[in-house]
Amino acid sequence: MTISEQLAREARELTFAHLPDIVVHESKRRVLDTLACAIGGFDSRPSVILQGLIQDLGGRAESTVYGSLYRTSCMNAALVNGVMVRFTEAMDRAIEGRDGRNQHGHPGEVIPGVIAVGEREHSSGKDVITGIVLGYQLLNRLSYAAGGARSIELEGMKHEIRANMIFPLVAGKLMGLTEQQLVNAVGISGCYAGELSLLDHGLEEITMARNLRFPYATYQAILAALMAQRGFEGPSQVYEGHGGFNEVILHGKIDVARLVRRDDDFNILYTSTKAFPVNGRLQGQTEALVRLVTEHRFVPEQVAGIKITTSPRVLEGMGNPSTHRYPQTKETADHSAYFVAALVVIDGGIRLGLDQFTPQRLQDPRVRSVIDKIELVAIPGWPIDEHAPSEVEVTMIDGTTYRCRVDYPKGHVLNPLSDADIEEKFVGMTGRLMSEAQMREVFRVVWNLDELDDIGELTTTLAVKAIRKPAGRGKKSLPSVERG
Q1: Of 29, 66, 118, 435, whose CB count within 10 A is highest?
Q2: pLDDT tier at 384 (50, 70, 90 boundaries)?
Q3: CA distance 267 to 84
Q4: What is the pLDDT of residue 274?
């Protein structure tokens, strides 16, 4: 059997009955966290542009655009909802195993596509949960077999290329495709895969196109599944064939045995949740600085210098002075070790409402004055994976020095957010757009997702208020609801 055939069979055979209760519950946590990101990015410029475009283009009313509740094709809904998620830079991260090693991208980005296809098919909550778990399982395993997301990026591609290779199986499963149709869908989508590293490169300014990395691949994957459903054929050896994914993209480095070997457990359990809406490798330095500012209550004018010690990977991707010291776009700012640190020193933290990443703050002289005091230092011996710590040293004008080290920031798989923490994240990201009653209803539906007869019952809860409150005006707390 080809690789695609083996993965297609696995996709077809996975059922909700195979999922332990802990996996079902974790999938609900992933949904709530991802929806927090989506609603948080609803009124972002990329989202607004795409919402206008898909309304102009029209299309069959199959699936819902979060926030507006506009109905469009499942491909369009997956695209725009996925862009909302990605814009916030607050989506989850996959970690390989419970020891917290090796980051493998953002598997939660499968969720907008799963829900969009699920709406089209009137899938139950159990079917949607099964699709989400399958998406995490296969996306992460492809990354494991390739040697990590980093291995893909070293070949000049972003790790979201996995979506073209895996999401057709997830979408096709929800559509009820046969094994052969699933193979055809992967073959079609996989042959047209490719997200260039230019989209998010440490030596380049990051543009709005970054937000399309996974969503655009999801769009293509759904289209491929729809083609296959109607009988369109694709190559069955898209992974291992001559000129296929393994040969062209990874130069034969894929561990084929690992890719097709079914796991003994479910890797959705090894997922980190971001506490701050910034790049994952900046979570540690952000938490360390927040601790120092909170404990010592210093103001920027008292600071003589800030030294941030981290891994070479952070400097490579987020510390290039020519592109990241004074970021010119939101997409670069949330990847800038300099900018994020300056915000913490001035504002006392990084707020979930994203109001600190406006064009005005990018040009704020006070922010730039703090940036000029920051020194980034990489320790060559430190790992580039999730074991890399973050150390921050703040020296005051009077000579006083404060230090803090964070090994596993809040939200890491070894220091996880609680269910209540994830609810608080949802409140922080959506509070300017949703009422308290709406948020409570979202919580109720998500925690009982496996009881839904139709996933459309979830998307109808995601409307935003007509009048939006300014971001960053205090923190709300909502009572928890019973969790299924």
Answers
A1: 118
A2: low
A3: 25
A4: 97
* Dihedral angle sign, alpha carbons of residues 306, 309, 310, 311: positive
Give me the half-sphere count of Cα atoms (radius 13 Å) on the Cβ side of residue 330: 20
Alpha helices for 238-356 (secondary structure H): 245-248, 256-260, 283-296, 312-318, 321-324, 330-333, 337-347
Cβ atoms of 103 and 386 within 8 Å: the answer is yes
449: left (phi over 0), alpha (psi -120 to 50) or beta: alpha
Q: Mean pLDDT over residues 220-249, rounded?
A: 97
In 325-393, where does DSSP find H-type helix? Answer: 330-333, 337-347, 359-362, 365-371
Higher pLDDT, 402 or 320: 402
pTM of model > 0.90: yes
Q: How far apart are CA 245 and CA 94, in angstroms?
A: 22
Cα–Cα distance for residue pair 78/324, rounded to 1 Å: 30
Cβ partners under 8 Å of residue 109, min gap 6: 34, 82, 85, 86, 91, 160, 163, 214, 215, 218
DSSP-based helix, strand, coil % in the chain, nearest 5: 55, 10, 35
Q: How far apart are CA 166 and CA 189, in angstroms?
A: 9
Segment 194-229, tens digit of pLDDT: 888 888 888 899 999 999 999 999 999 999 999 999
| Residue type at 73 in one-letter notation | S
Q: Domains in the chain, please, with CATH?
A: 3-272 (1.10.4100.10), 280-406 (3.30.1330.120)
pLDDT band at 28; cut points 50, 70, 90: very high
Q: What does each C-alpha distance from 167 to 97, 138, 332, 336 come to in angstroms?
A: 22, 9, 27, 30
Q: Which letter does DSSP use for residue 239 in this model?
A: T
pLDDT at 464 over 50: yes
Q: Give the SS3 label for residue 333.
A: helix
- In degrees and rounded to multiples of 5, residue 186 shows phi and psi of -65, -40
Write the CB contacts of 198 (distance below 8 Å, at least 6 apart in sequence).
204
Which helix (DSSP H) or strand (DSSP E) does residue 121 occupy? helix 110-121
**Distance from C-alpha of 259 to C-alpha of 347, rounded to nearest angstrom:** 45
Give the residues across from 395 on adjacent strands.
305, 401
Q: How far apart (Å, rounded) are the C-alpha atoms in residues 70 and 176?
A: 26
